[in-house]
Write a structure and sequence with these properties.
The structure holds 2 protein chains of 2 kinds.
Chain A (H helix, E strand, L loop, with lengths): L13 H22 L4 E4 L5 H6 L3 E3 L1 H10 L3 H10 L8 H12 L3 H5 L11 E5 L5 H13 L3 E4 L10 H22 L5 H23 L10 H7 L1 H5 L4 H20 L9 E6 L7 H10 L2 E6 H4 L11 H10 L7 H14 L4 E7 L12 H9 L3 E6 L9 H16 L3
Parallel strand pairs in A: 1-2, 1-3, 3-4, 5-6, 5-7, 7-8
Helix pairs in contact in A: 1-12, 3-5, 4-5, 8-15, 9-12, 9-15, 16-17
Chain B lengths: L4 E7 L3 E8 L4 E8 L4 H16 L6 E7 L16 H12 L4 E6 L4 E6 L5 E6 L8 H11 L6 H6 L12 H13 L4 H17 L7 E5 L1 H5 L1 H11 L12 H12 L18
The chains are: A alpha/beta, B alpha/beta.
The complex binds iron/sulfur cluster.
Iron/sulfur cluster (SF4) binds next to helix 7 of chain A.
Chain lengths: 415, 275
């Protein structure tokens, strides 16, 4: 057989800079935890990080850690550790991998960042159930194990329109966290600092949005697989200046690519939308799979979930509440359908792939007929692939490959 | 120069199938063997056998396309490989000129493919990571029951009171089978139940628009399954000629598409049949 030329996606030069700021972030966290100079809060990905920053906490994101466990392919061996203490293999594999890592006393941080021995010990655990209940259970385990308070926000679910009543509710819940957090931090909340953190989050959001929207260009200068990595600062450094500085650099590089007509994938012939979680342990393989088919996976709900247009420094707490409530994952199917339809149009998508992640029903929008409805209304063909974010035992590489290749063939053959 | 022929090689997880067609889309030669562990050697042997049947020399091969799990393991394809789903669709488009649903029961995968009236693929689905309803399920059960696979069709037809198996899972189904044996159920009734389970699982995968066509090795050897499927969908289901070769024929049709029969190119060195 003729040797197939391997096509890989192009390196983004800003990545080196990102690696440095991520390293600074992890070393900073480690220092806070080991020296006790700053209090450490653990926060869910769309929990009230801005509030924690304003109170001077160093903030660790267990989901980010769990994604690292997935990307380093450590998770599949760790999940059974959590299963053995009673957590089902069917629940969030971020949770089971992270708890498993804790039980075994290992972390990918130790390998990536010499000198770091473990995840930073928390002083408080803060969650928001706007994504799932699993995050609350996750924090509850650590709370019991480490004797640390777990507090959070219980968000309404399946929200169609975010109303004032919803915002009032979440605002009150965020406000109610403040006294406890002040007590742990040993400081009183400085509203100006909070305003600043929220304003910084807003700026970060806007830049991240512009980064993702460079992919409107044909060929697209970045892919979903780049996005999953480069969203790191938007997740862990939201509310800080570093994230903003970074996205300015990344944006300039991508805009230059657009000007030069350089695509992330050589010879882009089809444009794909990815709905759902990435398969962390297969990022490179999936990236190559699509690139070899000259197919650009260039937009996703997942990477766009760190865009919060409602952050407003002049009304920090209420705007945080609104921003967290507007998150895609908390919304109704009706809202989700409209959102996806808009994205398909905006990015001129030829086909949409739904990743049905076994252990995360919340981020698997392929279970209640949504793909069929969107396909009927838009005519954009869809494919559902079975897999998982972290548990590679739920992933069949050959099935994924055959499905994806057949789907791209189908698109190429005239729909 | 000999008449140009076009070769499709379908290297499946369980069986390797090769089809040789002419420019008029007719099947001249074919072969099926267990894929085994050396895909390229099996493919080479199948190729020899089908060329012999076709009465065509190697240098008559104008183009060859591979498909199936082992599609990357053959050295002598002259154009890129295609997916099984693509090849089954190509086959369906060639043989049926109407909207059809192709149901392919393979060794490890089931596929339901819908083609519109113009022969374009409208959608496809593969089974999830589970052997329910696949050839592997029947093979597993034939081992458990110690009944030759070839004997199953005849046995199922003798059934007077089918045993229904409820589980989605092959391992649980095996337990159910054992329970039925313990309860004194007759073997033909159990085998019919196994067939029913296969048909049900594959029909449950999707809706069935237009004419339904069944392909794959399982139905080639067990046509009773097709009759049962017809009863269940409420209209006759088509069992085409060469159901097991549908993917290989589709691959051969792709080979034909990609070759200009007037300016035949032959990049295959004689004797070069392995990777
Ligand atoms: S949304 Fe899914 S992946 Fe994220 S924490 Fe919840 S269950 Fe886990």
């Amino acid at each position: 057989m003729a040797e197939e030329k391997k096509t890989t996606r192009k390196k983004i030069h800003a990545a080196d800079r990102m690696n440095r700021i991520m390293a600074d972030y992890f070393y900073g966290l480690n220092e806070a935890a080991t020296t006790g100079k700053r209090k450490v809060a653990w926060c869910t990905s769309v929990g009230p990080a801005e509030l924690l920053h304003a109170l001077g906490f160093a903030v660790h994101f267990p989901e980010n850690h769990a994604a690292m466990l997935g990307a380093t392919r450590m998770s599949t061996d760790l999940i059974p550790e959590a299963n053995a203490i009673g957590y089902s293999p069917d629940i969030c594999s971020y949770l089971t991998a992270d708890i498993g890592a804790y039980l075994k006393g290992i972390t990918p941080l130790a390998k990536a960042y010499p000198g770091i021995a473990s995840v930073p010990r928390p002083d408080v655990l803060v969650y928001n159930t706007n994504q799932c209940r699993d995050v609350q259970d996750w924090m509850a385990w650590y709370s019991k194990r480490l004797g640390v308070p777990s507090i959070g926000v219980t968000s309404p679910k399946n929200v169609n329109d975010v109303t004032d009543a919803h915002i009032d509710d979440v605002t009150r819940q965020i406000e109610a966290l403040i006294p406890t957090l002040e007590g742990i931090a040993g400081v009183t909340l400085d509203m100006d600092r909070l305003r600043e953190a929220v304003a910084l989050s807003r700026e970060c959001t806007e830049l991240w949005k512009r980064v993702l929207e460079t992919a409107i260009a044909s060929p697209a200068p970045l892919t979903f697989f780049d996005g999953t990595i480069h969203m790191g600062p938007a997740v862990v450094l939201r509310g800080t200046r570093e994230a903003i500085d970074y996205y300015n650099v990344l944006l300039a590089e991508l805009e230059q690519r657009v000007t030069d007509g350089v695509g992330a994938v050589d010879g882009e012939t089809s444009r794909i939308y990815w709905e759902g979680m990435p398969v962390w342990g297969r990022l490179r393989q999936h990236s190559e799979l699509f690139a070899n088919l000259h197919s650009a996976v260039l937009a996703s709900t997942y990477c766009s979930s760190w865009i919060f247009p409602s952050f407003d420094g002049s009304d920090p707490i209420r705007s945080m509440a609104k921003a967290y409530l507007e998150l895609f994952i908390v919304r109704s199917d009706r809202y989700k359908e409209e959102y996806i339809k808009g994205m398909l149009e905006k990015f001129r998508i030829d086909g949409i792939i739904y990743h049905d992640a076994k252990t995360c029903p919340y981020n698997s929008n392929s279970r209640y007929g949504l793909p069929g409805r969107v396909e009927a209304e838009t005519g954009v063909p869809s494919l559902v692939i079975s897999g998982d974010l972290n548990d590679l035992r739920c992933v069949s590489d050959e099935q994924t490959k055959t499905n994806v290749e057949a789907f791209i063939e189908q698109i190429a053959e005239g729909r | 120069m000999s008449t140009p022929i076009f070769v499709g090689l379908d290297i499946g997880s369980s069986r390797t199938k090769v089809a040789v067609i002419d420019a008029g889309h007719q099947v001249l030669g074919h072969a099926v063997r267990k894929s085994g562990t050396d895909f390229s050697a099996t493919a080479a042997a199948c190729l020899e056998e089908s060329l012999e049947m076709a009465g065509s020399p190697r240098d008559g091969i104008a183009s060859a396309v591979s498909t199936g799990y082992g599609r990357a393991n053959v050295a002598f394809v002259t154009t890129q490989s295609k997916t099984e789903i693509g090849c089954l669709s190509r086959y369906g488009r060639d043989r049926f000129h109407e909207a059809i649903t192709i149901i392919d029961i393979g060794g490890q995968d089931n596929k339901v493919i819908k083609l519109d009236g113009d022969g374009r693929r409208a959608s496809f689905k593969m089974n999830r990571k589970c052997a329910a309803g696949t050839g592997a399920f029947l093979e597993e059960m034939s081992l458990r029951l110690d009944i030759a696979l070839e004997a199953m069709d005849g046995l199922a037809r003798q059934s007077t009171e089918m045993v229904k198996l409820g589980s989605y899972c092959t391992v649980f189904s095996a337990t159910e089978v054992l329970e039925n044996i313990r309860n004194g159920k007759k073997v033909p009734d159990i085998v019919k139940g196994l067939f029913y389970s296969v048909v049900k699982r594959v029909l449950e995968m999707d809706s069935h628009a237009g004419r339904v066509v069944m392909t794959g090795g399982v139905v080639a050897h067990n046509p009773y399954i097709v009759e049962m499927a017809g009863e269940m969908v409420g209209r006759p289901v088509v069992l085409p000629e060469f159901p097991q070769l549908a993917g290989a024929i589709g691959a051969a049709l792709y080979a034909l598409d990609e070759t200009d029969p007037i300016g035949i190119r032959n990049t295959i060195p004689a004797g070069e049949t392995h990777g």
